[in-house]
Each structure stands twice: as structure tokens, then as C-alpha cells.
């Protein structure tokens, strides 16, 4: 696995594209080997075109799972690349462009995913937005706040509600949280708050859905080399990205995906619900 830690200063606009990154992230394309953990399952991965979502899609497909990818329309190229890897693994891939900040679109994505895959067993709420800010909370605009809260929280609620129409006993929901829930950066005040809320929702929903046999968990990544970073952090911050972790480096998306496989698989996680699984490079998740 590539753990190239030379990240030159670079900047993109959100949502960011994989092929504009130097180096391109390692999403497990060359290395991930499946062991039939998810054979015959069907998963919707929001933000599945790139970064952590792409690594999850590749891993799930190699574990025997059909995958639906939700992403923004401008990310079609990244989505098609991910779909190629899913097809190469011999699995079906549904491509579902759409802005999840719109309720009807968010709900429609779920219905299309279930329609194209013939049902849904796993939901990965992974789409997310952040934007590093300078200045005080007093300068924060409602437009910025809306983009972060609608993408990270409203969409998660809408998508989860709609997915519950399809998820049956044995189903699993996995939310992508962040180390920002525990170690918030001042520049990501709003984003960090959404990730703390996602942890709270995860535990709360696990209690509600346990009696229906549906497990709900969260993965808590530390710094991960994905398009989100050059698209939302100042260029000069990129070279030291991840250096402040105990392991002294950022993760590649391929290093985060196995946590999602573990939580999705009834073989490994049939009694795991209401927990957060840290993949943080050493920072605690408590
Ligand atoms: P990424 O940019 O590759 O993925 C994020 C995806 O979110 C985008 O590809 C996009 O498809 C989707 N998205 C954003 N706004 C959307 C909208 N309005 N409608 C539909 N889709 C939308 O970056 P990533 O780092 O892989 O992010 C995946 C998740 O991981 C996010 O929830 C992010 O908060 C979380 N995370 C990332 C890091 C990190 O360091 N990269 C750390 C902790 C948590
Ligand atoms: Mg993307």
C-alpha cells in the first residue's frame, strides 16, 4: 500500500477531483483482497465517487456486494472510475448523481438505489462537506452554515429515513464521523459540530433500530488524503496534513475502508451496534 507522505501545497474548489491531486489517493485499487464478507449484499454509499467512499465501494465490491454510488453531478468522472472498479470485481454499480442538500433528491437517490439493486442491505452515510474558515464565528455566513449542516446532517436524516423503507433485519447503517467530533479545529467549527451530532445520532438510532435487527455504527477517521482536503484547506496547510497524529502521517482511504467492511459484515459485527470505530492514527475517540 502506498503511504506516500509528500503532499505538495495544492488547492482545488469543492467538491474536488481525484485526478487533480498530487499524489492521487490510494483507494485500495491495487491491494484490497476480499474474503466474501458481504456476498450478495446491496449497499448505498453516499459520496461514493472519491476518497473514503471510493475505497469503501471497491472493498465492498471485492467482498461480493453490489454498490450504488451517490455523488454531485460535477463528480461524474470520479464516479465512473469507481464504477469501473466495482464492475471489475464482478458486481453491479448504480450511478446516482444528485445534490443531497435537496430533500426530494436525497430521498430519490435512495429509491433509485434500491430500485436498481433490487433492495438495500447496507447504508453508508458518507457524503460530507467542510470549509476551513479564518476569522471569528461572528463572520460565519448562513450560506456556509447551510452547506455544511444540510450536507452532513439534513441529508443523513433524509437518506436514513428513506432507506428504512428497504433495510430489513440484518441490515446495517454506517455513518462517517470525524476526529473533529473529539478534537475540534477552530477553523472547522460548524463541521466539527455536525460530526459530534453524527456520533450522537449513531448511538440514538442504534437504540431505536436494534429491535428491528438493524445495526447502526460510525467510523471516525482521522486525517485522510482525499479530494476534500485540497478543496477545503488552505494550500499551505497541505504539506503537513496529518503530521500531528501519533503515527505522524495522514491515512490513505484504503486504510479506512476495512473498518466499514468490519461494521457492515454480519460475520464480524453481528453484535456490534451503537459504537464509533476510530481510524485516527492514534488519537483517542472518547
Ligand atoms: P471526498 O471529497 O472524496 O468525499 C466527500 C463526498 O461527499 C464527495 O465526493 C461528494 O460526492 C459528497 N458530497 C459533498 N457534498 C454533497 C452534496 N451536497 N450532495 C451529494 N454529495 C455530496 O472526501 P472524503 O474525505 O472521502 O469524505 C468522505 C467523508 O469522510 C466525509 O463525511 C468527511 O467529512 C469524512 N471525513 C474525512 C476526513 C479526511 O481527512 N478526509 C476525516 C474525517 C472524516
Ligand atoms: Mg468526490
UniProtKB/TrEMBL annotation:
InterPro entries: KR_dom, NAD(P)-bd_dom_sf, Sc_DH/Rdtase_CS, SDR_fam
Annotated region described as Disordered, given as residue ranges: 1-31
Annotated Ketoreductase domain residues: 41-228
UniProt keyword Oxidoreductase present: yes
PROSITE patterns associated with the record: ADH_SHORT
Residues in coiled coil: none
Keywords, sorted A to Z: Oxidoreductase
Annotated Polar residues bias: 1-15
A Pfam family the protein falls into: adh_short_C2
SMART domains: PKS_KR
Entry keyword Oxidoreductase: yes
SUPFAM superfamilies listed in its UniProt record: NAD(P)-binding Rossmann-fold domains
PANTHER family (UniProt xref): NADPH-DEPENDENT ALDEHYDE REDUCTASE 1, CHLOROPLASTIC, NADPH-DEPENDENT ALDEHYDE REDUCTASE-LIKE PROTEIN, CHLOROPLASTIC-RELATED
Family that this chain belongs to: Belongs to the short-chain dehydrogenases/reductases (SDR) family.
Name of protein: SDR family oxidoreductase
Amino acid at each position: 500500500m502506498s503511504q506516500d507522505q509528500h503532499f505538495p501545497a495544492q488547492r482545488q474548489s469543492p467538491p474536488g477531483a481525484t485526478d487533480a491531486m498530487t499524489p492521487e489517493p490510494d483507494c485500495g485499487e491495487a491491494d484490497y483482497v476480499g474474503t466474501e464478507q458481504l456476498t450478495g449484499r446491496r449497499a448505498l454509499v453516499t459520496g461514493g465517487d472519491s476518497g473514503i467512499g471510493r475505497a469503501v465501494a471497491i472493498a465492498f465490491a471485492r467482498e461480493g456486494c453490489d454498490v450504488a454510488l451517490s455523488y454531485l453531478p460535477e463528480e461524474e468522472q470520479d464516479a465512473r472510475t469507481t464504477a469501473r472498479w466495482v464492475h471489475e470485481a464482478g458486481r453491479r454499480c448504480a450511478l446516482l448523481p444528485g445534490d443531497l442538500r435537496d430533500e426530494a433528491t436525497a430521498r430519490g437517490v435512495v429509491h433509485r438505489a434500491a430500485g436498481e439493486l433490487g433492495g438495500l442491505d447496507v447504508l453508508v452515510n458518507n457524503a460530507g462537506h467542510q470549509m476551513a474558515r479564518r476569522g471569528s464565528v461572528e463572520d460565519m455566513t448562513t450560506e456556509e452554515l447551510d452547506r455544511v449542516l444540510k450536507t452532513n446532517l439534513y441529508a443523513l436524516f433524509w437518506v436514513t429515513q428513506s432507506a428504512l423503507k428497504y433495510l430489513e433485519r440484518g441490515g446495517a447503517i454506517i455513518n462517517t464521523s470525524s476526529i473533529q467530533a473529539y478534537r475540534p479545529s477552530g477553523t472547522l467549527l460548524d463541521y466539527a459540530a455536525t460530526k459530534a451530532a453524527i456520533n450522537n445520532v449513531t448511538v440514538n438510532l442504534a437504540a431505536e433500530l436494534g429491535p428491528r435487527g438493524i445495526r447502526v455504527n460510525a467510523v471516525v477517521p482521522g486525517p485522510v488524503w482525499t479530494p476534500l482536503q485540497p478543496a477545503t484547506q488552505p494550500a499551505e496547510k497541505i504539506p503537513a496534513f496529518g503530521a500531528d497524529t501519533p503515527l505522524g502521517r495522514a491515512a490513505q482511504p484504503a486504510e479506512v475502508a476495512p473498518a466499514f467492511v468490519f461494521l457492515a459484515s454480519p460475520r464480524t459485527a453481528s453484535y456490534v451496534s451503537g459504537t464509533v470505530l476510530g481510524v485516527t492514527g492514534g488519537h483517542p475517540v472518547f
